[in-house]
Amino acid sequence: MERAGWRGFCLSLFDYKTIKYVVAKNKKVGLLHRTLQISILAYLVLWVFLVKKGYQDVDTSLQSAVVTKVKGVAFTNTSELGERLWDVSDYVIPSQGENVFFVITNLIVTPNQRQDTCAEREDIPDSTCSKDSDCYPGQAIATGHGVKTGRCLLEGNSATGTCEIFAWCPVESGVRPEKPLLKEAEEFTIYIKNYIRFPKFNFSKSNVPNVKDKQFLKSCRFSPKNNCPVFRLGSVVRWAGSSFQDIAVEGGVIGIQIEWNCDLDKAASVCTPQYSFSRLDNRMVKSVSSGYNFRFAKYYRDAAGVEFRTLIKAYGIRFDVIVNGKAGKFSIIPTIINVGSGLALMGVGSFFCDLMLIYFIKKREFYRNKKFEEVRVKESRDLEAKDKDEEEEED
């Protein structure tokens, strides 16, 4: 028995199955079959070809260059700086605009700092002391402003004081700003020039409209209805979902997204960028690290040749220009691939209907016997002999 089983298994490897078409007069399965065919055809035409443009070859390796320029002036009058006019050279960092730039909206100024000895701020960790031995000479205060000299400075009859340090004195104030200094920054303008190239199709474009009027860029402003590349700073902050007066106090980060989706089967003029704006820093959580700021200094020498500086802690808005995109153009290869995939899905629909027909409906045994038929060589010969005998009897 075991030998016969193995023999039968080995012989079955050489069986050949051919397709037998059976027309099943079943309205439910027939309706299901047509529904699947129409659904697959609609998916192929509407989604694959019309929405996703499956007939196109796509290039996502976008090459991009961004140049930015900010314009506007602001006037301030403070006790530290006196009357001062701020222009682009003062409040934009770096001065040559790139895809990341910073606009100062607020600042804390510590003028006339010189390298000398002075008391460390009380709110700095490891700066408090009660005696000189608490201030080890030469030890740097990691989060402070200088190096300890070994003296503990006590005020009056107080039991505690702060260590004396060698640093740029006087040290910076720890008071956080409450109002923006450069309120006029809301009316500043940002000019963003973006060059892009899709290397696969050798296609290049700029976001600057091709107009002959030289005064166009001086008068136009971006809005959702046009593609003028000049943006009002206050409007950008508002489109990002923030208030300018709030973000101007302690700073923040704004993302300007430029999206290029180009259909190169159409005219090049149709390929225009889409702009969107978002607040990138965590504005929902108020903490000691909220906002955006950094420090820089301007150095001078007095008449005696002694160096001194003005320290500026700058608060402001950092802008990140992020460019993404893709381009598509007709190609026969993706067209054939997607058409072939659609035809294969048609076959899946037929396979599903076959399963319903021979496994799930009430008359499945009847349809199964009609669909599958086993033909043996011996039976075929017996049938041929029987037919031959019948023919001879007729003769």
Structural account:
- This protein has 395 residues and is an alpha+beta fold.
- It folds into 2 domains: 15-55 and 331-389, Orthogonal Bundle (Helix Hairpins), CATH 1.10.287; 63-120 and 171-330, atp-gated p2x4 ion channel domain (atp-gated p2x4 ion channel fold), CATH 2.60.490.
- The protein is built from 9 helices and 16 strands.
- Strands 1, 5, 6, 7, 8, 9, 13, 14, 15 and 16 form a 10-stranded mixed sheet that branches. Strands 2, 10, 11 and 12 form a 4-stranded antiparallel sheet that branches.
- A hairpin with a 4-residue loop joins β10 and β11.
- The chain is elongated, with a radius of gyration of 40 Å.
- The two termini are 47 Å apart.
- The model has no long low-confidence stretch (mean pLDDT 83).
CATH superfamily of the largest domain: atp-gated p2x4 ion channel domain
Query: What is the share of helical residues?
Result: 25-40%
Question: What is the highest CATH level, the class of the largest domain?
Answer: Mainly Beta
Query: Can you tell me the CATH architecture of the largest domain?
Result: Sandwich
Apparent shape:
elongated
Counting H and I runs of at least 4 residues, what is the number of helices? 9
**What structural class results from the helix and strand content?**
alpha+beta
Number of domains: 2
CATH topology of the largest domain: atp-gated p2x4 ion channel fold
Strand-residue fraction? 25-35%
The average pLDDT value, as a whole number, equals 83
What about the largest sheet? Answer: 10 strands, mixed
Helix-strand topology string: HHEEEEHEEEEEEEHEHHEEEEHHH
Rg, Cα atoms, Å? 40 Å
Note the gap between the termini.
Answer: 47 Å
Unreliable segments (pLDDT under 50, ≥5 consecutive)? none
What's the number of extended β-strand segments?
Answer: 16
